[in-house]
Each structure stands twice: as structure tokens, then as C-alpha cells.
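Input chain follows. Return C-alpha cells only.
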Amino acid sequence: NNPLSSARKDVGGLWHRKSGAGYHLFLSYYGNQPIGVVTTDDDYNYPSKSGITARQSVDNKAALGNSRAAKKRRRKKNGSNNCTSTDTNVAVVSASTSAASSQDADASHPLMQAFNSGSNDYAHLTNFIHALSRPLPLTLRIRKHESGDSSEISQMFDKFSNLVTPVACDPTKQIYQSASGTNLCKFNLGHQSPALKSIVVDASMNGTLARQELGSMLPVLCLEAVGAMKNGSKVLDMCASPGSKTLQALEIVVNSGDTKKRGRVIAND
């Protein structure tokens, strides 16, 4: 009965998702961004489909149509680090390095399919695209309740310590994440441990557990840690969709039996 599930199913029917055009536009936009936006200088040493490095491909395109004076100015600006040279000191990323970068990347992801297509020649985006296509680790947060007892669900998780462990940044040990080396994520949870998936689903349905990415939890955790968000606080959430942080904030500001001291969260979607 989750309305978000129905909304996600409808997204697949949008033209840019069905055709893949949205992913190619994504590659085109970020592929033409300057160094420092989503890439580093080293990313341009990946070999492109044409056999030369991405750095040489970009420099060759930039050189087309330039006058001799413009080329002279560019050589003077770059000095001895002229990237269009054939100096053997220009490092080309080896196949083993490229393979390591692609480890755990989901090859079936539409973004990866667009990136690996013949029409793509943005080799310098390799690390960026592989990072986006790599499934995030499974992260679970035990929710705060006025009279809730988290010990029971914690004891259940302890039985699966080979799969999920408390995160180091949470001293309360209410946040669990897939153990290092397991590659456990929401997509393969049922395959790796049907028993753990059953616990997660049941605890999520009864409100004991929230599946929320760690990056999403950190803003609220930081505000709570410095005392800026506590019981009775008034919070304005300016970007509340889909609501994971909003719910997390609510659990903090209203977590008291005294209704006069309860806080408020105004959520703006």
C-alpha cells in the first residue's frame, strides 16, 4: 500500500527512460564539464574508444581551427606539460586499474548501458559513472519511539553479524550497515539471506525499522549531536521528499511524553 511504489512503476513509462535519451543527455552534460566538477586530472588518462587517452581526445578537439598564434599561446601557458605530445611520461590507465574501478558496478544499470554504448566517448567519466552505478550498501536505522524497545531488533541483528554491523559513527548503535566485504544491498538481500530480509520487512512494516541511506541520516545526526535539534525543537525541512530525514527529525523533536514540550517539523516538498 505504499503510494511511492506505484509512482516508481509509472516512471519507467516516460519516454526518456524508455529510449535511454535521458542517460545520454546526462553523459553529454557531465562529459563536457571542466576538471574539478565530477572528474580529476587523472581521469583524463583513461583510453577512449578511439584508442587515445581522453585527455588527448579533448585536446585534439580543442586544437581544431586554432590559429598558430593561439596554439603558441597555449603551448606557452601549458609549458612542458603539453598534453598533446607523445611523451612516454603521459600515464595511461592500465586495464587492471580500469577493472578495479568497475568492481561491483551494476552492468545492467541503464546509465552503465548508455556509457558502454558505441555512441559514448566520455572515457574520463569512467570513475564517476561506475560510482553512480554501484549499489549502495544496505543501511538500516532503528527508529526512536516514546515507549519503544530497540533491544529486541538489535539482538536479531546480532545473529546476522556476518552480514550487518553497527556503523562506527553512531555511538548509540542504532544504525546498522552491511558488513565490509559482503556487497550486501537492497537488491540482493533476499538472495543472500532470506531470513534477514524477512526481519527487515516485518520491522519496517510495524514501524520499528527504517531503511535509509547513511548519507541521508548524517544531517539530522549532526544537528542532534551539537544540540541544534532536540525534543521541542522547531524544524523547517526545505527539501522534504521523499521524507526519510523528515521522519528522522520528527522522532527527535516529538520524542517525549510531555505534549507541551513537543516540537514541530514543517516539511516543504
